[in-house]
Design goal:
The complex is a heterodimer of chains A (143) and B (305). Chain A contains two helices and eight strands. With 143 residues, chain A is mainly beta. In chain A, strand 7 and strand 8 form a beta hairpin. Chain B has 305 residues and is of the alpha/beta class. In chain B, strand 3, helix 4 and strand 4 form a beta-alpha-beta unit. In chain B, helix 1 packs across helix 5, helix 2 crosses helix 10 and helix 5 crosses helix 6. The chains are: A mainly beta (143), B alpha/beta (305).
Chain lengths: 143, 305
């Protein structure tokens, strides 16, 4: 069994669907942070069989985790302070997501307008449907 | 400052105020002849649409205002690669209000977000064409006296027709509407439309032949069935006559049924129907000018006593 050390302050993202940790790494822009990050792939899980885990050692106010709910709202977010879990953050589907996914509609203005952010708006919370703010094309493909 | 991107941008109450104004314009055209004196409308048409552009221009000229603009992308800075955001910032310095048609969906919304003048979406690709929907609603309200409690038949290409989808979305806000969709199987309304109707408990029927339902209709909204939408020539030849409105089919209709069409018409309404008093499609064009006049006044916040 692989062991990754405890962190003092930051987040442990648990119960990530196996294989999705790298996508989360990029969506949270962890590649741009100068702090310790551990990605654990295919860890054994009683609940899921296999799972991924991401540990980030950073100031807990540094990361905007809302996008995680869009990627997979089953992820458990443990907030760590002084080496202990101080809370579990509840993930809410963000009302708007900016520059996380791109509109694939070739007729959408985002396909030609320079510098225009790709914004998707939560159109149906129950069915978890996001639509492009500009052309209203449904985002169909999950990350 | 308000813009118009989607027919649902206005509440039902706001729409009724807009239509009251349009009807007052219809009755007292002279009163409004100088309402927009000194104001300029920019018609920024990145793709040709003669009818919509001329309707906007006629509306502004009827209000005593002036018109500037371009009628295709090749005669604008877009041909040099200018973004919509930059174009609208420039246009904002020249005009007081802008009507924009663009082949890319959402382009007028991008313009509105950067603009210092009101922007009207005059059609963005297959997405929205709100002033057509306002025209349809005003025509129905003016000629029927109401926007509730009727059975409307929508006939032709119901799959790709954006005017049809917008009209359905606008009408579901009124009480007692029943929809009858008349189309070949290939061109039926998309599932998301029927799902929405089921969710809201709004009655609808889907039928193949227009003849079968003519007697039930209070309104018939015709659209063009294009040959290229069919999977094969055989089906097209077999089905095309089902969707051509002629005198014989009109005999089956109620004496006060109205026939609407967003135009241009090709052959789906036989010219012999034009003389029928129930044919309202040319009146619809006239209402299009009135509703655009009312819209310009509303967005420019100009009141005429």
């Amino acid at each position: 069994m692989l062991n990754v050390g405890k962190i003092e302050e930051g987040f442990v993202l648990d119960h990530i669907k196996a294989g999705k940790s790298l996508s989360i790494y990029y969506h949270l822009q962890l590649d741009k942070l100068d702090c310790p990050v551990a990605l654990i792939k295919n860890a054994r899980s009683n609940k899921m069989g296999k799972k991924d885990i991401v540990k980030v050692e950073c100031d807990i106010h540094m990361l905007d985790l809302d996008v995680l709910a869009f990627i997979d709202h089953n992820i458990t977010v443990n907030v760590i302070k002084d080496g202990k879990i101080v809370s579990k953050k509840e993930l809410m589907l963000p009302k708007e997501i900016k520059n996380v996914i791109r509109c694939k509609n070739p007729r959408c203005i985002t396909s030609i307008e320079q510098g225009l952010p790709h914004i998707f708006v939560l159109a149906d919370e129950e069915k978890e449907i996001y639509r492009c703010k500009y052309c209203e094309e449904k985002y169909a493909e999950h990350l | 400052m308000r813009h118009l991107m989607n027919p649902l941008d206005f509440t039902v109450e706001e729409l009724h105020r807009l239509f009251d104004l349009a009807n007052d314009i219809e009755d007292h055209m002279d009163k409004y002849a100088h309402a927009c004196a000194g104001k300029k409308l920019a018609t920024c048409f990145y793709e040709p649409s003669t009818r919509t552009r001329l309707s906007f221009e006629a509306a502004m000229l009827n209000l005593g205002g002036n018109v500037i603009g371009f009628s295709e992308a090749s005669s604008s800075s877009a041909a040099k690669g200018e973004s919509v955001s930059d174009t609208i910032r420039v246009i904002s310095c020249f005009a007081d209000i802008c009507a924009m048609r663009h082949p890319k969906e959402g382009a007028p919304m991008v313009a509105a977000s950067r603009s210092s003048i009101p922007v009207i979406n005059a059609g963005d690709g297959g997405h929205q064409h709100p002033t057509q929907t306002l025209t349809d609603l005003l025509t129905i309200r003016s000629l029927k006296g109401r926007l509730d409690n009727f059975t409307i038949g929508l006939c032709g290409d119901l799959k790709f027709g954006r005017t049809v989808h917008s009209l359905i979305n606008a009408l579901v806000r009124y009480e007692g509407i029943k929809f009858i969709f008349i189309s070949p199987r290939e061109l039926m309304v998309p599932d998301y439309v029927t799902d929405m109707l089921k969710e809201k408990n709004i009655p609808y029927e889907e039928v193949i032949r227009l003849d079968d339902v003519m007697p039930k209709l209070d309104l018939l909204y015709m659209t063009r069935v294009q040959k290229e939408r069919f999977f094969n020539e055989e089906d097209y030849v077999r089905l095309k006559d089902f969707y051509i409105l002629d005198k014989t089919k009109m005999k089956l209709a109620k004496p006060d049924m109205l026939v609407l069409h967003p135009l241009p018409r090709v052959n789906e309404i036989s010219v012999e129907v034009d003389e029928d008093p129930r044919a309202a499609y040319f009146k619809q064009v006239q209402y299009g000018v009135y509703v655009r006049m009312a819209l310009i006044l509303t967005l420019l916040n100009i009141q005429v006593d």
